[in-house]
Design a protein that fits this description.
By secondary structure, this protein is mainly β. About 15% of the residues lie in helices and about 35% in strands.
Length: about 170
């Protein structure tokens, strides 16, 4: 993984006062609005997206659990949302009663450093929300990105068949 200079400074040098703000955006053509929430800033935050759009994220008590990228380069985020128990069921009903019921709701994850709200620190875009588990006061849902590396060349490059590869592995 290649880190940007800003990411290297944050992880290697660090600043105790610089907070990583985690934001999510949930959208679907049938929803009444695009929902934008920040996990760890109770007053909300106004940030600039990668396309230059200035957007305000409202605070919501969220728990974000990022899955590990596997060998197929897929990404996964599990989101636990509290205090939205009245909003999410209505939007799910609106989704099922629309001509877009076969489309998945989409999630975009962005993180920002509190010292720099003009550009995302990290972004995961166009994750499909594939599971939704209603809770008493909210919901738990899983968002995944399509598999990016699912093609094979048809040949297996093993040392048994390709002995010349051993020189590259030992170098």
């Amino acid at each position: 993984m290649n880190l940007t200079p800003e990411q290297e400074r944050y992880h290697l040098i660090g600043n105790a006062h610089d907070v990583l703000l985690e934001c999510i955006e949930i959208s679907h053509p049938a929803f009444s609005q695009v929902y934008q929430y920040v996990r760890n800033h109770t007053k909300g935050v106004t940030v600039t997206h990668e396309d230059g759009a200035v957007t305000h994220y409202d605070y919501a008590p969220l728990k974000l659990q990022r899955g590990k990228s596997n060998e197929k380069l897929s990404q996964e985020i599990t989101v636990t949302v509290a205090d939205l128990g009245m909003i999410i069921p209505h939007e799910i009903d609106r989704l099922y009663n629309s001509p877009y019921e076969l489309e998945y709701p989409m999630l975009t994850y962005r993180s920002y450093l509190l010292s720099n709200l003009t550009a995302p620190y990290e972004t995961a875009r166009n994750l499909k929300i594939i599971e939704n588990t209603p809770q008493v006061h909210g919901a738990v849902f899983k968002a995944v990105q399509r598999i990016l590396n699912n093609k094979k060349s048809g040949r297996s490059f093993t040392l048994d068949k390709w002995r010349a590869l051993r020189g590259f592995l030992n170098a």
